[in-house]
């Protein structure tokens, strides 16, 4: 969640289609304009189980568009940019409504959003886009922890199971700490690349 959208090398960009109307792109658009607003509305009205089901579909659509892009040979330049943006907006949107509903602590939302904002500003200032940085191992574990923590907190809210909420909060703390550590690593990596380019 922290890292800016993955870079597209010039040679790869030439191979990618510039088509807009493809099945994977349609799924990414649907994730933003249909599934995300629906999930946010269900969370705000505390329909926890419907919201959880919608979030499962939301997450599944993220996997499906990438799978179809490769399987149908429909990888596009738009898709490589749209998919990570849709992911970022989805995570922040869901976290926001969970914080409003009292399910997610506000400190977690602020920490997640602040790290993302700093990295996006650095990428825009130094690279006018996305730097060539691989996803770190900490970043992968961070993402896994957060993706398990959010549904766990939703289930806890729908069942009033105090112990389950504690589990969710524990995973959330691990995820947020990993988010900050991974974000710091990405920022240091961007600074090194920027210095090399200026040298």
From TrEMBL:
Gene Ontology biological-process entries: glycerophospholipid biosynthetic process
Superkingdom of origin: Bacteria
Keyword Signal listed: no
Gene Ontology molecular function terms on file: CDP-diacylglycerol-glycerol-3-phosphate 3-phosphatidyltransferase activity
Sorted UniProt keywords: Lipid biosynthesis, Lipid metabolism, Membrane, Phospholipid biosynthesis, Phospholipid metabolism, Transferase, Transmembrane, Transmembrane helix
Transmembrane parts of this sequence: 20-42, 48-64, 85-101, 107-127, 139-157, 163-188
Location relative to the cell: Membrane
GO CC annotations on file: membrane
Membrane topology designation: Multi-pass membrane protein
Primary localization: membrane
Segments forming a coiled coil: none
Protein family membership: Belongs to the CDP-alcohol phosphatidyltransferase class-I family.
UniProt protein name: Cardiolipin synthase
Organism from which the protein derives: Salana multivorans
């Amino acid at each position: 969640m922290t890292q800016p959208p993955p870079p597209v090398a010039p040679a790869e960009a030439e191979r990618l289609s510039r088509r807009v109307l493809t099945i994977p792109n349609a799924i990414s658009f649907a994730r933003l304009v249909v599934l995300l607003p629906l999930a946010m509305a269900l969370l705000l009205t505390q329909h926890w189980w419907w919201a959880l089901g919608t979030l499962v579909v939301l997450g599944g659509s993220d996997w499906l568009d990438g799978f179809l892009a490769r399987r149908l040979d429909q990888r596009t330049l738009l898709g490589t940019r749209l998919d990570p943006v849709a992911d970022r907006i989805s995570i922040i949107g869901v976290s926001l409504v969970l914080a409003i509903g009292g399910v997610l602590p506000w400190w977690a939302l602020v920490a997640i959003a602040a790290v993302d904002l700093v990295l996006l500003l650095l990428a825009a200032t130094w690279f006018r886009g996305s730097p060539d940085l691989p996803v770190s191992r900490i970043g992968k574990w961070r993402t896994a922890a957060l993706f398990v923590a959010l549904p766990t907190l939703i289930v806890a809210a729908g069942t009033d199971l105090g112990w389950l909420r504690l589990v969710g909060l524990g995973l959330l703390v691990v995820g947020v700490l990993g988010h900050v550590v991974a974000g710091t690593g990405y920022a240091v990596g961007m600074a090194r690349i920027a210095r090399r380019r200026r040298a």
